Amino acid sequence: MYTDNGTNFVDTHNALQALDRDKITEEQRFIQIRWKFNPPATPCRGGFWERMLRMVMELLRRSLGRSKIGFEKLSTCIYEIAAIINKRPLCVVNEVSEGPFPLTPGMFLSEIEYLYIADRELLKKENLLKFCKYKQTFMDELKARFRKG
Predict the structure, then answer these.
(1) What is the pLDDT of residues 115-129, one digit of tens each?
(2) pTM above 0.70?
(3) CB–CB of 23/56 below 8 Å?
(4) For helices 47-64 and 71-85, angle between their N-to-C axes, nearest 10 degrees
(5) Residue 107: count of CB within 10 angstroms of its CB
(6) What backbone torsions phi and psi does residue 53 show, to the nearest 5 degrees?
(7) Is the Cα torsion angle 102, 103, 107, 109 positive or negative in sign?
(8) Which residues lie across from 36 on neighbouring strands?
(9) Could you read off the pLDDT of 44-64 as tens digits, one per residue?
(10) What value does the CA radius of gyration of the chain take, rounded to a whole number of Å?
(11) DSSP per-residue string spanning the chain
């Protein structure tokens, strides 16, 4: 977990270090959190997550304003905001962009959305195999583009 040196993060880190990990591991599966703190007095190091947090807060303010809502509606709103943020391109996009569409984080988090699915009766084995092959090729190309940078 990457954080700044806020007192709440440092205190949480210290409290987790004081736990008896052997006893916890025996009772249930436990994954230890590894903290990576920014150097002291360098707030610019957390610019990425601070910007992401600002985007989430702005979207929450726009969608909810000052309304009081329950947990369910807040959860739904946060999931929708996460979907919006994950649709941002990972690279610079020109107004006149040629070539393939830009990569987004959402492409790697979920399956590709398809706008049209034929009725079951109309599906044929050959078409399904062709579709699966196309989908696999598409995902391979997507991963290659991501690794290539």
Answers:
(1) 455 555 566 777 778
(2) no
(3) no
(4) 130
(5) 20
(6) -65, -40
(7) negative
(8) 2
(9) 777 777 888 888 888 888 888
(10) 22
(11) -EE---HHHHHHHHHHHTS-HHHHHHHS---PPPPEEPPTT-GGGGHHHHHHHHHHHHHHHHHHTT----HHHHHHHHHHHHHHHTTS-SS---SS--SSPPP-THHHHSPPP-S----GGG--HHHHHHHHHHHHHHHHHHHHHHHH-
Residue whose token pair is 């509606």:
73
How far apart (Å, rounded) are the C-alpha atoms in residues 124 and 18?
Answer: 60
**Residue 112 identity (one-letter amino acid):** I
Which residue has 């690279």 as its token pair?
Answer: 91
Listed by start position, the domains of the chain span: 99-149
If you search the block for the tokens 């949480």, which residue do you land on?
12
Dist. CA 81–CA 67, nearest whole Å: 17
In this structure, which amino acid lies at residue 22? D
Q: Which of 59, 55, 60, 146 is nearest to 109 (CA)?
A: 146
pLDDT digits (tens, 9 = 90+) for 5-23: 778 888 888 888 888 777 7
Q: Quote the tokens at residue 63.
A: 């969608």
How many residues would you count in the chain? 149
